[in-house]
Design a protein that fits this description.
There is one protein chain. The protein has about 240 residues and is mostly beta strands. It is built from 1 helix and 11 strands; from the N terminus they run αβββββββββββ. The chain has an 11-stranded mixed barrel. The longest helix has 25 residues.
Length: about 240
């Protein structure tokens, strides 16, 4: 072998290696980049009908992401609540969501939940606790075990100040414990909110809040800030 052939070999090997890396990269599935900081807007309107110890709610909501620049998802939600006594109540809910992917397409998600609620009052402060079990699946098949799903157990406590007649400031904290078929259960994130509930009489109920979701992961946990604006008409 002459010197000219030997000088070409390293360059040929480098070229083959580079082409192999590029080919392997093309074969890898595309993955969404994890968002670790964002400001989202959650806004919606609802109607609520109450009779005796029952109340029925229908809610439409749209949520924005990427610093409120694009739609994240939108959904229709219905809930039925039964008041057991002055302190305890039970509620069941159903939600159909159109969830937006990074390529602009949408997935259909079905979610249902069961809540146990507790309410008590200490002078001007009311305490509201909610224990929620929820399961969400892709599509409409909630029975097939092969369908991808997410389950959560959520614990939320809210303190509300009731001294003023119509304006009710509040703070809340909620823990999300996730259960998936492909991994062990874990505390995924905490949601903290502070807001104002404005009771406008016959006009309805307005809710304005700001807070965040923070993951519990040690490496690069996400911090998602939320601005919530909601309206409920009650009759």
């Amino acid at each position: 072998m002459n010197k000219k052939q030997m000088s070409y070999r390293p360059y040929s090997l480098r070229l083959i290696l580079l082409l192999g890396i590029l080919a392997a990269t093309e074969l890898l599935p595309a993955q969404d980049t994890k968002v670790v900081r964002d400001l989202q807007l959650w806004t919606g309107a609802a109607i609520e009908k109450t009779w005796k110890d029952w109340s029925l709610t229908l809610n439409e909501e749209i949520r924005f992401k990427q610093n409120i620049s694009e739609i994240n998802n939108y959904f229709t939600e219905a809930g039925l609540r039964y008041r057991i006594n002055k302190n305890f109540s039970l509620e069941g809910g159903y939600r159909f969501t159109r969830d937006r992917n990074s390529d602009g397409s949408y997935d259909n998600l079905t979610r249902y939940n069961l809540d146990l609620r507790f309410r008590a009052r200490l002078d001007q402060i009311s305490i509201h606790y909610r224990l929620r079990y929820q399961k969400e699946v892709e599509g409409f098949n909630r029975i097939d075990p092969t369908v991808d799903y997410e389950k959560y157990v959520r614990n939320r406590i809210r303190l509300r100040y009731n001294k003023f007649m119509r304006i009710k400031p509040y703070v809340s904290a909620e823990l999300f414990q996730q259960f998936r078929p492909d991994t062990y259960s874990k505390l995924e994130y905490i949601r903290v909110l502070g807001g104002i509930r404005y009771e406008a009489g016959p006009v309805g109920l307005f809710n304005l809040a700001f807070g965040f979701n923070r993951e519990f992961e040690d490496i690069e946990p996400a911090m998602i800030y939320q601005l919530k604006v909601n309206y409920t008409y009650q009759f």
